[in-house]
Amino acid sequence: MNLDLDAAACAFRDEVRDWLAANVPAGRLPSVDTPQGDAAHRAWERRLADAGLAVVSWPLEYGGRAVPPLHALLFEEEYHAAGAPARIGQNGLFLLAPTLLRHGTPAQRDRILPPMVRADEVWAQAWSEPEAGSDLAAIRSRGRRTDGGWLLSGQKTWSSRAAVADRAFGLFRTDPQASRHRGLTCVMFDLRAPGVTVRPIRQLDGDPGFAEIFLDDVFVPDSDVIGEPGDGWRVAMSTAGHERGQTLRSPGRFLAAAERLVALWRSGDGRDAATRNRVVDAWIGAQAYRMHTFAALDAPAGPFAASATKLFWSELDVALHETALDVLGARAETDAAWTDGYLFALAGPIYAGTNEVHRGIVAERMLGLPREVAR
Q1: Which of 170, 219, 225, 323 could form a disulfide with 126 if both were Cys (CB 3.0 to 4.6 A apart)?
Q2: Domains, the chain, ranges and CATH?
């Protein structure tokens, strides 16, 4: 693995670093899940898009820069190191868009990607249901065939960004007679369409980061089906791979947090060896994740590697933030940045499939261990 950057990579990194230094807002934007934060973050996304930096890895025709994967990783490192705002469009940019680029039609890409780049349309992820979270194949929401499209009915829950989003994508059972993983269809729908009710869910911090979505015979045209009807499981697994892997949680995020943790330790009064070792372990973990990602550019990992990756980054995130709060001590009560980061990190072992589910995947499908005995 060669870690020396060539001239083109250095020039790109320097361009991104200079632009961010000149444009990143001086203070934190309001929470992305509030009306004020929604407007501020959409404005930030348009600023990125105007600079050609919203989605650097995308094809040129959709607003990207068509840069190689290494450049995209460098962009993420610079973005997080600069303390740039969270991405309100992340569900669309990092989950739906890669799915459309692989499984969508040219017409879908032409229609959906340009407004996504400029945050004119923000997307919610509508996977989970009241009795189908990590067990995604247990969904009960249905799609019923009608002239020119489908009628969607059912309930989605824990839908991220749904309280402020414009549209959503999710799985629906379109053939009730088929087995669990068959007869599913991946569909996009308008959150303001007749028959849709969005009910925000308040988090511990009081913001509606999630919402329930109720659908009552909501019409969607055939043109909003991703892939073939009945082939939704394959499409969804493609999306989940991006959610669990490095697309949504790039190493840059953890590198920046680890560097802030080291700086916090150096600025503090406490000097106990045990906490110092935890700071070191968190920094090493972030560097290890970076090295793993760089290595994967030359030798892509196997089909289930995203599960191992998700286990690593989600547990690293919790450990890193727990260490920061311990270093802060009583000051943690008034440090919103580390406290907010800790609360978000706690969700990591749950979303994108619980870590218990991913340990099962690693055990059975990567290591060939026997299935867990049902008790």
Answers
A1: 170
A2: 7-87 (no CATH), 123-232 (2.40.110.10), 249-367 (1.20.140.10)
